[in-house]
Amino acid sequence: MFWAICGAALDIGFRRIRGAVRSVQKYPALYLTDLASVGVALAMALLLRYGVEELSARPETASVLLWSGAQYLTICALVFPLSGLYSRNWKYGSISDLFIILRAVLLTSLLLVSLLFFSTRLTDIPRTVVPMQSLLLIAFLAAARLSFRAEELALRRPVFKSGRSKDAQDDNRIPLLLIGASDAADLYLRALARDPNATYTPVACLDRSEDQTGMSLRGVPIAGRIQDFERVVAELQQQGKQPRHIVFTEAPAAFGEEASDGLLRSAERLGIAVSRLSQMTELKRAKGDNPYELRSIELTDLLERPQAALDREAIGRLVRGRRVLITGAGGSIGSELTAQVAACAPAEIVLIDNTEYNLYAIDMTLTESFPEVPRWSYLCSVRRSQRVEEIFERHRPELVFHAAALKHVPMVQMNPCEGVLTNVVGTMNVANAAKKYGTLAMVQVSTDKVVNSTSVMGATKRLAELYCQALDLNGLETGLGPRFMTVRFGNVLGSSGSLIPLFKRQLARGGPLTVTDANMTRFFMTIREAVELTLQASAYGFEKQLGQGEIFVLDMGEPIKIIDIARRMIRLAGFTPDQEIEIKIIGCRPGEKLFEELFDETDKRTSSPVPGVLGAVPEPIPLPTLRDAFARLQRHSERGNEASVVAVMRELLPRYEHEADRKMAAASKRTPLRPKGRIKAKAAKSPRGYGAELRLPGR
Hints:
It holds the Pfam family Polysacc_synt_2. This is Polysaccharide biosynthesis protein. The protein has about 700 residues and is α/β, with parallel strands linked by helices. It has 24 helices and 21 strands. The protein has a 9-stranded mixed sheet, sandwiched between helices. Strands 3-4-2-1-5-6 form a 6-stranded mixed sheet. Strands 13-16 form a two-stranded parallel ribbon. It starts with a helix and ends in a 5-residue tail after the last helix.
């Protein structure tokens, strides 16, 4: 038993020694610095005890210093590793780790005193030197370990300095407003400062009390209380630091229900996204089968501008107490439009959609969120004029929002007849029914693809714009009929089949993210912002009779490169672009342009009194001309005659360039003209022939 205990003790001792040796090997420079500090601390203690003059008059002190210093160095060289001074990552050291230093210094000082007592009875060294050198050594050891966190020292670099000059990296970061200046905010700011790929930069803090106002938290100014939110945002906007995201560092309830609700309402009105930090102790189930599982991504984080402010009172006056009909009600735009209209207490909502599941989903949403709003849901294609008129006759809607459309450029490009039947004929059917059954106003949702269109989708939506413009001008001339308003905007983030869901799927698979061209740019806004501005433009246009014969063009800020959106999504998901997740260039698809525009070459730009909205006046086409052309388009589309469909669209839109036209133009530039006989002979030898290359779709 005795030998077993001795063996176990020796084994534990050897393991402890091996661990101490390995810890020293990790921090050799720190170990040598500590030993040098031992000698310096002992020498300074003797100097403080005797002074310079007395010390120079006592030459025997040098031998005492060498003898006691050698003993103390030996003791520290053995005790420091065993006491755990090198078994911690001092980059994350805290005040509690100071006790390790105190324990090590106290233990080595006691051993030194004991050794000197038994060897010299402490006659060669003053007794005050030991406590003095111990205090000095504690300071030296703590300073050495503090250097591991030198990047957080205010004298070297503030964590977040509000007045620092902006560099390129700061320009790409999202301004952040923190709600709460407590321990959680401190931890978050520490983590944010350590992350070189952080996508946020804090600009200010708000706290629950006024005690900390005027102070700062890790360089971030505490600008006021939570009740001062709007004032602080206005001041930050004047300084060019308007926050685009608000983060509650604690649960909103901790700041008071009334104050939190008021801040949320103000943030919603100002178009600022709001999030809450997850609790550090909150456990989440890990899904080991998918290492690329995404964190939640706020779509507003992908935009480099704040969302527009709204006049909700004007929107409420437009919708409240009226019968509203929405086509395409289950789509991305339509469902958000339905939800926002339902929130304004209409008399009833009539939902039209051609997809059963989409209609079911939006109907269930209204059932759960707005059960008090009367509603009717109809499976109906806007192509069927008789079915559309039947619904209009039954409900006599006062407001019509036309969001039904085929919108995916490559799909419509491959199916031009279907695009014409939905986007052109469908719009005509809805507009004619609105005029026939006494609708007060019809609002058509359009797209920036109509501008200098190179795709079938853009051309069909352009024709829809022109038809609604012609009806609006006709009503202005005759004094009869509803207002026909068109709202044009660019890409919306998060819509079904759009860019962001695609990138999310690709990220979830670990990449690569596919981008058609490195220089491709688009105008972007969130679905919510697009719908809110659509309602606001409609409210102003109807109530104040603004923009008759005009197109309301939403102000979408500056265009954004698709590749920049991809990189930002990768960073928001917690990865490094081009290193952990690849971005792959795959080339443009049929009908796509490198950049989009909000105004056509033929559009006349006008100033609009509607906040966040611009004005455009296209060259009008007489209503009879459009009706005759639309009848031909419907006839050719129903027969599947794509060549005739393209020919009629080219009559109405002389600048429209079809895909086949571009291929023919490119081929004519590459191929010199040949006599007709030689062309036929060449075509006969070729397996495809020239006819296959120049053939229009569907011929």
